[in-house]
Amino acid sequence: MKILISILIWIAGAVITAAAFLSSLIIKILPFPIADRAKLVHAQCFWWSDALISLNPFWKLTVKGLENIDHNQTYVIVANHQSLADIVIIYQIRMYFKWVAKKELLKLPFIGGLLWVNDHVLLSRGDYGSIKSVYRQAAGWLRSGVSMLFFPEGTRSHTDEMSEFQNGAFKLAIKEKRPILPVSISGTREAIPKSGWIFKTTVSGHLIIFPPIDTSVYKPADYAVLRDLVRDKLQNADLSEQ
């Protein structure tokens, strides 16, 4: 039975992701003016996220803290990273944002298309020139009023202990005087099977949006203090509050 359910999940997931990409692409290229076109393209990922979470009987997700988001504010969003499923789950925050993604994700069918059509910022790992370009682009989006999402661990953590956070998001937040919005993701480590394709285990994921952190009180040299503050907040997220 799990084999049959897993086959259906993967097929339905592919169809839903293809539909989200096509609807996003059509909205992007329609040859007439559309109010807030980029936001409308981005919003296709909201129903995509809802559909993928709802159709998978092995996934249970609790979302807390949406009231901490001011949709008229521009944030540097910082989230920890446990699973490829986090890409789906993060859209439950219902915000318009760009995020920094590894360029190799473009190779994933339709998901890569969603990255491309939404003009997310792409990073080539190990390429110093690419890193500099990423932060120039990120600063440009922030200055234009678009929030930026970072997974500062750089890659998915493999244990309950978070990896060390990289500095860039925190330097950027201080430099551009934008508040940091911490987002905790937990319970998703086993959301996508690591050895094979069969879903076997029910996972209970939790997404918590914490109150924003004002960065105006930090000097550029204080980025490490800010980084460690955010990491500790996410690492010590009280699961009883979820």
Explain this structure.
With 242 residues, the chain is α/β, with parallel strands linked by helices. The protein has helices at residues 2-29, 37-55, 86-89, 111-117, 128-143, 168-175, 223-235; strands spanning 59-64, 76-79, 97-102, 121-123, 147-150, 180-186, 203-209. It has a single domain (58-241), classed as Glycerol-3-phosphate (1)-acyltransferase. It has 7 helices and 7 strands. The protein has a 7-stranded mixed β-sheet, with helices on both faces. The longest helix has 28 residues, at 2-29. The chain is globular and about 55 Å long. The mean pLDDT is 91.
What is shown here, in short?
The protein is of the alpha/beta class and 242 residues long. The protein has seven helices and seven strands; from the N terminus they run H-H-E-E-H-E-H-E-H-E-H-E-E-H.
List the helices and strands and how they pair.
Layout: H1 2-29, H2 37-55, E1 59-64, E2 76-79, H3 86-89, E3 97-102, H4 111-117, E4 121-123, H5 128-143, E5 147-150, H6 168-175, E6 180-186, E7 203-209, H7 223-235
Parallel strand pairs: 1-7, 2-5, 2-6, 3-4, 3-5
Antiparallel strand pairs: 6-7
Helix pairs in contact: 1-2, 1-4, 6-7
* CATH third-tier fold name: Glycerol-3-phosphate (1)-acyltransferase
Terminal CA distance: 31 Å
Q: Work out the number of β strands.
A: 7
CATH class equals: Alpha Beta
What is the count of helical runs?
7
Summarize the main sheet.
Answer: 7 strands, mixed
- Classified in CATH, the superfamily is Glycerol-3-phosphate (1)-acyltransferase
User: Reading side by side through the largest sheet, how are the strands ordered?
Assistant: 1-7-6-2-5-3-4
Mean pLDDT: 91
Structural class: alpha/beta
CATH architecture: 3-Layer(aba) Sandwich
**Succession of helices and strands:** HHEEHEHEHEHEEH
